Amino acid sequence: MKARTPRSTAVRRLAIALAASASALSLAACGVMDAVGGSDSSESPTKGNDITVGLLLPDKETARFEKFDYPLIREKVASLTGNKGKVRYANAGASANKQSEQFQQMIDAEVDVVLVDAVDAKAIAPDVEKAKEAGIPVIAYDRLAEGPIDAYVSHDNELVGEVQGRAIVGALGDKAATSKIVMMNGSPADPNTARFKTGALEELDGQVVIAKQYDTREWLPSVAKANMKKAIQSVGLDNIAAVYSANDGMAGAVIDALKEAGATEIPPVTGQDANLDAVQRIVSGEQYMTVYKSFLLEADTAAEIAVAKVQGRSIEFDALTPDKVDSPTEEDIPSQLVQVVALTQDNIKDTVIRDGVYTVKDICTAQYEDDCAAIGLTS
Predict the structure, then answer these.
(1) What's the CA gap between 6 and 340, in Å, rounded?
(2) So what's the pLDDT on residue 1?
(3) How far apart, in Å, are the Cα atoms of 240 and each of 21, 141, 286?
(4) Per-residue pLDDT averaged across 141-170, rounded?
(5) By the 8 A CB rule, do 279 and 345 touch?
(6) Nearest residue to 58 (alpha-carbon basis) of 253, 273, 224, 218
(7) How far apart are CA 29 and CA 298, in angstroms?
(8) How far apart are CA 328 and CA 118, in angstroms?
(9) Mind spelling out the 3-state secondary structure of the chain?
(10) What does the pLDDT read at residue 256?
(11) Looking at the predicted structure, is the pLDDT value of residue 120 above 50?
């Protein structure tokens, strides 16, 4: 069964992502998911507010998971259940084996639902099966897991790649057709990697020369840096016009490798996740852009879906999952795909600062004070 996304063009992807986001926000505004478990549904909840949500996140290298996703989900579950619901949390540290052990611990603890961001989407399938046998629903979070999952919450990942690829072509301008770029893709065990790559290649194929391309084991910056050194040696430092980096952790490693090789001017480098150090690199001009994905909306929606599923509120569950996505093992998985934004020097205030992810003070530390002033980023 071939994995697919529920749309065929970039315009369609963006329209659905925006509509999905609007759906989640309108549900909250209209009070469909009541903070104390109330509902407009005629159904009676199958479980009250005293619920436990198991949360399995994949690694600590990606700053957002510990800093944003976990606390946001914990707080939202509490608010939806009158502070009676709780989150049982574990981070796999990029180990699929460790995540499998943690999943089993969640099953043994008889949590009511599991939110899982899989280290390895295929390897997690047997654990999803075990949860299903135990009567525990499983919701794939951020990455599409294989096995009989009940729902999927993420971003439009092909659109993420398109936004990154489009940024490179735009940065290169008239020189794009003859420019050599390096592609630093994510982990092959992460199904999102293929979607990011597909989206990026829609923009890059035929527009630039892809001189070298690498997959990055477990998204490790150290692996990305080693591969970037190989690319510099093979292509030549002065011949690399841009680097497609699938996320911010690898972008930082790529930039370090370019600096260590003697680059006095860093070519355009993309990223994803809007990590604080990446935003600071964008301020200083070292990193060209990152893809900002609303952690708040993704995390809040995941928590709402989890609570609705446990409490048997099908009306809310259906409204929160307007999209359908296929995995290699399942078809028509109820899903919500959240919008993404290209973050550059021009819109830092309108993205991460407006949404309260960072303050100007967070970004404009002493090291970046002059750079912030140069682009008008002041409190």
Answers:
(1) 16
(2) 34
(3) 37, 35, 15
(4) 96
(5) no
(6) 218
(7) 16
(8) 15
(9) CCCECCCCCHHHHHHHHHHHHHHHHHHHHHCCCCCCCCCCCCCCCCCCCCCEEEEEECCCCCHHHHHHHHHHHHHHHHHHCCCCCEEEEEECCCCHHHHHHHHHHHHHCCCCEEEECCCCCCCCHHHHHHHHHCCCCEEEECCCCCCCCCEEEEECHHHHHHHHHHHHHHHHHHHHHHCEEEEECCCCCCHHHHHHHHHHHHHHCCCCEEEEEECCHHHCHHHHHHHHHHHHHHHCHHHEEEEEECCHHHHHHHHHHHHHCCCCCCCCECCCCCCHHHHHHHHHCCCCCEEEECHHHHHHHHHHHHHHHHCCCHHHHHHHCCEEEECCCCCCEEEEEECEEEECHHHCHHHHHCCCCCCHHHHCCHHHHHHHHHCCCCC
(10) 98
(11) yes
How long a stretch of residues is the chain?
379
10-30 and 157-172 are packed helices; what angle lies between their axes, rounded to 10 degrees? 130
pLDDT of residue 2: 35
pLDDT at residue 45 in the model: 52
Provide the pairing of β-strand 333-338 with 323-325: antiparallel
Spatial distance between the Cα atoms of 139 and 149, rounded to a whole number of angstroms:
6
Q: CA 81 → CA 135, 151, 152, distances in Å?
A: 21, 20, 22
The answer to whether 375 and 345 are in contact (CB under 8 A) is yes
pTM across the whole model: 0.75
Mean pLDDT (the chain) is: 89
Interval 180-225: pLDDT, tens: 999 999 999 888 999 999 999 999 999 999 999 999 999 999 999 9
The pLDDT tens digits for 172-188 are 999 999 999 999 999 99
> 330-343: b or e for each residue (b if 16 or more CB lie within 10 Å)?
beebbbbbbbbbbb
- Cα 1 to Cα 222: distance, rounded to the nearest angstrom: 34
* Gap between the Cα atoms of 354 and 334, Å rounded: 30
* Contact between 308 and 316 (Cβ < 8 Å): yes
Tokens read off for 237: 């430092």
Instruction: Confirm if 216 and 245 have CB atoms less than 8 A apart.
Output: no
Task: Name the nearest CA neighbour of 87 among 299, 242, 297.
Answer: 299
CA distance 210 to 208: 6
